[in-house]
Amino acid sequence: MEIKVLGPGCPKCQATEKNVKEAVADSGLDVQVDKVTDLMEIAKYGVLGTPTVVVDGEVKSVGKIPGKDEIMTWIKKQTKGERG
After folding, report:
1. Which residues are tagged catalytic?
2. Is 46 left (phi over 0), alpha (psi -120 to 50) or beta?
3. Which domains can be identified in the chain, with CATH numbers?
4. pTM of full prediction above 0.90
């Protein structure tokens, strides 16, 4: 599983990245977390706001700081889908 945090590095983006990393650590799963700051790369996702969270290519959140519980829900749903 791969989670990307899209944003230029503003305080909201930093808080989002922190929440994602904490949720991943709490999950105990092998999840790759990437920070994308390049505006051209962010534009490829078709989003107009940051921070944006993308889980395995699917945009989950735009323009807000998702809480750890919300992120955990995405991780759990994604891992259920991967298992079949």
Report:
1. 10, 13
2. left
3. 2-83 (3.40.30.10)
4. yes
